[in-house]
UniProtKB/TrEMBL annotation:
Protein name: Arginine N-succinyltransferase
Pfam families (alphabetical): AstA
Enzyme Commission number(s) from the entry: 2.3.1.109
Keywords, alphabetical: Acyltransferase, Arginine metabolism, Transferase
InterPro entries: Acyl_CoA_acyltransferase (IPR016181), Arg_succinylTrfase_AstA/AruG (IPR007041), Arginine_N-succinylTrfase (IPR017650)
Protein's organism: Salinispirillum sp. LH 10-3-1
GO molecular function annotation: arginine N-succinyltransferase activity
Class of enzymatic activity (EC top level): transferase
Amino acid sequence: MTIIRPIAESDLDSLISMARESGIGVTSLPDNPDLMKRKLARAVASFQQRLTPEESHYIFVIQETPDGPPVGLCGIEARIGRDEVWYNYRLGEVIQASKALGLYRRTPTLFLSNDLTGATELGSLYLREPYRRNRNGSVLSKSRYLFLASFPELFSSRVIAEMRGYSDADGNSPFWDGLGHRFFNMEFSDADFLTGSGDKVFIAELMPKFPIYVPMLPADAQNAISAVHPHTEPALAMLEAEGFRKNGYVDIFDAGPAVECELQRIGGVQRSERLHARIVEHKEKDSAIRPQWMISNERFSEFRAITATHIYRDGPNLELTPEQAEILRISAGDPIRVMSIKPEEPQDG
């Protein structure tokens, strides 16, 4: 039984280790212990409701057993761009025409933009490599839909995710080399680290304010626009299966695409259902079967979600074993949410 829970102060060492492992390009997890400590403190304060909803950043961890260590994490930023300017490139076009010469040209462009400010962001998704099995990545990512469905008033109706852009095996970004490096005179890894550390002032100071004509970039930089890192392709596919689509914005450093979906139209939010707990004894099913379902409580500060291979529903009630109820920290009659992991799977009757 896989468990998702809010990150705790005792998880600091695990958080630092995962940030170190995540590598170049995962901007939300820079290899910076002091920053990770501040990031954890902010998440803990968010779950304790010591911050306003607009200031909050929620981080969840996944563990394979009730007493096991955290092996991955994911996050929800309630509102991006609230405390620091949020930059993207907006993909656009410039139309040029000359009747005298009989010419009509559409030139793709990049416009520096703050248009995504105020949106809710799904981010900080990372799963340690030995645990990329048994649908753990899908479970970790989709657990956030249960939280969004339970507390939609805390978030924007506009939900986005920024995907890691393409870089080669050595961590080199062709988009950065073809554009950003010419204005910042630093390596991609250094710019990525500064951005992850929250130091974005240099972007406004050095980035050109006028549209960038894409055909003027090297071919490999053009090809990288809206492309994702090979390791990110499964995450993009999962989001697209839940209704997210590329929205015409890309990251200013690696040109990774942003995807977007209205909160109430997210597949996992739509197919989640609010029921009530009935605690009964059930015989264990085959534990070798991959999990098909996720069940969560609706306790904000003590949010918990677990996986299950089968569910047993009786009208408005969902039957749980005493062990499941204990892990979810609920009693008989408490509200719970259930969601099929795969979008195409119907719920059991």
